[in-house]
Write a structure and sequence with these properties.
The chain is an alpha/beta fold. It has helices spanning 17-20, 27-37, 50-53, 73-77, 80-89, and strands spanning 42-45, 62-66, 95-98.
């Protein structure tokens, strides 16, 4: 996802995988790192396969999957209301899918 998306999510504390030093981690390792850090409530990703490859129900964070083929900032901006709502409403161990309207 574009790093500039964080500017569009004012009011949320946003950290990127790169900022956390997790850029080389695979999905399972990445989710473990997110869970172990205890600094996160929700993990946002555009990896649509993640929800089928990992047991999200056992996580202490919620997962928001942005389901789109176009991950440009302009396109993601069109989904901001749904994305904000999903971030606010997704409980630990649950998955929310955000799609273009």
């Amino acid at each position: 996802m574009p790093r500039k998306l964080r500017r569009e999510l004012a009011g949320f504390a946003v950290r990127t995988v790169q900022e956390e030093g997790w850029a080389g981690l695979k999905n399972g390792e990445l989710l473990r790192a997110v869970t172990l850090s205890s600094s996160f409530d929700v993990f946002v990703t555009v990896d649509q396969r993640l929800r089928y490859q990992q047991n999200i129900g056992k996580l202490s964070v919620g997962v928001v999957v942005i389901e789109t083929f176009d991950t440009t900032l302009a396109n993601l901006r069109t989904m901001l209301p749904q994305l904000r709502a999903a971030i606010e409403d997704t409980a630990p161990g649950a998955i929310a899918v955000v799609k273009p309207a």
